[in-house]
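Hi there,

I know you've been waiting on this one. I reran it after we fixed the sequence typo, so this is the corrected version. Both the input and the resulting structure follow.
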Amino acid sequence: MHLSQVRNWFLQSPPVEWGIMHLREILIGALRHGPIPQHIAFVMDGNRRFARSHGIETVEGHNLGFEALAKILEVCYKSGVKVVTIYAFSTENFKRSKYEVDALMDMAKVKLAQLVHHGDLLDRYGACIRIIGQRELIKPDVLEAMDRAVNMTKRNGNAILNICCPYTSHAEMTTAIRNTVIEYSNPLPSQQRSFSESHIVHNIRARRLSANSPSPRIPIMRPQSPSSGAPSDNEDSISTSTTLNAGSTPEKSTMEDGDELKGTQGNTYPDPESITSKVLNDHMYTAGLPPLDLLIRTSGVERLSDFMLWQCHQDTDIVFLDCLWPEFDMWTFLPVLIEWQWKNRRMSEKDDARVSRRASAKSKNS
């Protein structure tokens, strides 16, 4: 304990702080000369374990986690990262104690106000806040604070901070599929008719079936002579007319059915075969953002916990770190960025070598 106090005192002394600050600027400047991930996601795990291991309240552990987030955001934006997505609150977290959930929500209101304070972190780097998740699960006072933060930073256009609260990937993908189905259930305007192969085949089959099917017969009502006087004939004619359409003539019923069929056949709907991964991607919460380049999770747990499952692709670098989130700082983050740059450069060199081999093979064949 005594050694840690001496270490903290030494690191917080003005000359050492000045030296560390300048060293940080040099390292970040060196990073900017190489490729930088445009979209980084963080699973901020380990706040509660940090609080338990240090004998402090759980809420204080979350508070220290926010301070760590502010430092990491500054490193990201200063390095040139355009989009940062953080897993702030999962819908599964509602299963925790009411005291902890309420404390987290109250802290979110305070910390959002600090983030959007004029001249602070987000304004300095021109970053705007986006809240993504199931808004209907958030309490009205917290939702009001979130909307206020979004509106105060909406003019910032250099970078984005996505706050996932409350969020799960399953809910995001379900919402995207539901919205896609709704969109494809609406008929297209007449000038945007679909002429896909499946649409043409469907129309040809429908016409063949209608041509082969016999036309429906309409019973003809014959006038009854008054001299017949058979009650059974009267009953038959009444039941026949009722079968057609009560209170209407057969001609009118046939015309109405034809008009209804004509109106139904006139609608043209989007072709379901045109639904691709890009269409679904356009309905995700992260639509229009760069692909996810790097996902980092602290606390040593090696799972995604229903976070950014759709956004992770074959080129996403997923890194699991043993440190707890409040301990995650620039000195832990910089090696991850350097390793990502090294991998990216290596992949670029392989792609360039492949292109050059193909070009040389074509020149030899010609």
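Quick highlight: The chain has a mean pLDDT of 82.

Best,
R. S.
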